[in-house]
Description:
The chain has one domain (10-246). The protein is built from eight helices and no strands. By secondary structure, the protein is an all-alpha fold. 70% of the residues lie in helices and 0% in strands.
Amino acid sequence: MAGKADGRGTLRQAVLAAIGYIAIMALGMFTAGHVFGITYGDPEMVYVLVFFEVAMSIYAVVMARRIFGHWHCGFGPIDWRGMWWLAPSFLVIAVLFAAALLTGTVSVSLLVLAVIVTMILVGFSEELMFRGIVLKGALREVSVLKAILISSALFSSLHAVNVLAFVPLDGMVQQLVLTFIFGLAMACFALRVNSLVPVIAFHALWDMVQFLGDIWTSSFGLLVFIGVVVNAVMGAALWWFVLRKRQG
């Protein structure tokens, strides 16, 4: 059942869909932490979460079809001129992978394969839900800025459930702040390039390299922090110089 053609009620449906998505993640974190005794941050968590990520990817596709009448909301033709805004972030990703390979003890294992598959699913389902369903749904009813803020707040809220896998309260608060900033940048990038494909790729690779770095005991130094700053600065610049002009 698609949302109404005039967009009324679409935002409400999108928010409810996001709440359902967060509930599935909460169940995954509870299962990993309280059933299997795996603490958040332990790469072996992917052995549990991969099944929930499959479910969340299917759920996101189903919700997109139900609300918009198709699942590919946000998958428009890529505006390659907008990719320049993402280039510095992808450069950081390349440097992180180089550091992981050069400073770590690289090996291929079932855990490594599970991380790769899980992070691809994470990138797909989270971007489809928050920069696809929620962002596009909000844009039908509110201004660009409000739509970006709503999608980023819900994306940040997703990470509150990590407390169910024994993340300390202060660590959870830090995650909420960082993921809110990450969400702001991803929303800006998605709007500029007119497609979720580049942000899905970046999201998946960003999470993947950090998990692989933990497995291989790689040394990143300040690279992750630099990546956060670069992403935030480029997102903010994109908003200020381009997207704020679209305010409705």
